[in-house]
Amino acid sequence: MALASALLAQGRADDAMPRSILLIDRRTQSSDDDPRALALAEGSRRLLRALGAWPADAATPIRRIHVSQRGAFGRAILDAADGADAPFARSSRQHGGDALGHVLRYGALHAALAKTLAPSATTRAPSSPPSATHLQQLGGCQVRTIRAGGDSAVVTLDIAGRPHTLTARLVVHAEGESDAAATRIRDYGQCAIVAEVGLPRGQTHGGVAWERFTRDGPLALLPMGEGFSLVYTVRAERLADLLAEDDSRFLARLNRDFGGRFALSTISPRHAFPLALRLRRAVLAPREVWIGAAAQTLHPVAGQGFNLGLRDAWTLAHAIGASRDDDGTTGDPGDARRLARWAQQRRQDRLGTAAITDGLIRVFGSALPPVALLRGAGLATLDLCPPLRRALTRRMMFGADPVAATPTSPTDPATPA
After folding, report:
1. What values do phi and psi take at 94, rounded to 5?
2. Where is 157: in which H helix or E strand?
3. By the 8 A CB rule, do 114 and 32 touch?
4. Where would you find the membrane-spanning parts of this chain (predicted)?
């Protein structure tokens, strides 16, 4: 998210005014080899494509999503065609987008973002203090303190064990968790097991993603390459036993969980991480702003977390790029009133998306038979009601403000399609 934010800010700065951008990362190693899978919505694909950072060859399209619940009736199918009558969706197809979203490895996206930034970026060694170049990347260092003043913030960095200070008109937190006191936290008591699974020779996924709700939590198979990316949600107390299972037994369990629809035959090493909702209460402070994973982390159900963060970054870049004084000269990117308008603009998308994902976990996590019947009726209604299905599909593809968040030019992210 930090790379995407820097690229978006650079695009606005190049078009409107010169600004120095310093990208700070505590890590020293590249994330290009990170195998984690990302599900990117169509709106995110369009944004990255407009910036010249869309790794098309590494992405697998999702053309349909099959949603069901284990052990109860009701299912719904969402198709890319459900959003086909909207102007932004028609424009999307003209630019090569005929999918609900795409799945790709995080490392592939990181490499594409880094490559796009590379021509104008200066990478500093961890022991080097920052300078005043236009775009600079600084790895292997940590932010120790931030003290906001009237028209700037003083940032103290730890670089190779030595303190360095710099001043910034705006500090953007794009990665890492916020402090607990400033964050609403809900521990789901669940963990996600992630892996890549393969199909037997001759079988294909057809671009279909599968979301299946169980008492333990949602299971997802996302088409990626020739197989699937798996997100298998379990109760935390069952995690150790499931990770200890050998591959053949785990695959048999997985095939049963999906009702025998597949004959999944191979699986990569499994990894796991705990699941919780973290929602920062205030995303603004004097000369500071929080976006992406620093502002919120969501349950992976429906795959909305990274897409929400990318919309945070795009709208913030646009707000900063629009910061001009009345005489047309460079304005203050940390102007409190402008940032307050940005935060208000993001409120509906942030809170609405968090509420939807949290609500899905609550509703589909209940074992009460009447609730299961209501869930089934809800899925059936969604499947049989095209207007409702289209509304949900567009929300998944483009967020709460689809027309505003569909850039077509790398130099003007605000231009609607």
Report:
1. -65, -25
2. strand 153-159
3. yes
4. none
Residue indicated by tokens 């996600």: 192
Nearest to 386, CA basis, from 144, 103, 85: 85
Q: Please state the domain extents for the chain.
A: 2-182+276-398
The residue length of the chain stands at 417
Q: Identify the H or E element spanning 31.
A: none
What does each C-alpha distance from 171 to 177, 210, 283, 284 come to in angstroms? 16, 40, 12, 10
Please give the class, per CATH, of domain 2-182+276-398: alpha beta
CA dist 376 to 301, 345, 379, 382, Å?
18, 35, 5, 10
Give the pLDDT confidence of 162-196 residue by residue, as tens digits: 999 999 999 999 988 767 767 888 999 999 999 99
414 neighbors 311 (Cβ within 8 angstroms): no
User: Do the beta carbons of residue 187 and residue 268 sit within 8 Å?
Assistant: no
Query: CA 75: distance to chain centroid?
Result: 26
Please state, in angstroms and rounded to a whole number, the distance separating the CA atoms of residues 260 and 266.
Answer: 16
Inform me whether the pLDDT recorded for 17 exceeds 70.
Answer: no
What does each C-alpha distance from 108 to 30, 122, 220, 272, 358 come to in angstroms?
Answer: 11, 21, 21, 21, 29
User: Span 55-66, mean pLDDT?
Assistant: 96
**Sign of the CA dihedral with 15 first, then 39, 188, and 212 last:** positive
Residue 160, sorted as left (phi over 0), alpha (psi -120 to 50) or beta, turns out to be: left
Burial class, 235, CB count within 10 angstroms (exposed 0-12 / middle 13-18 / buried 19+): middle
Question: Binning pLDDT at 50, 70 and 90, where does residue 338 land?
Answer: very high
Give dist(CA 139, CA 275) in Å, integer.
28
Beta strands in 180-290 (DSSP E): 183-198, 208-213, 218-224, 227-235, 266-267, 271-280, 284-285, 288-290
d(CA 345, CA 328): 24
CB contact at 8 A, 194 and 232: yes
Kindly give the pairing relationship between strand 121-124 and strand 135-139: parallel
The tokens for 171 are 């500090």
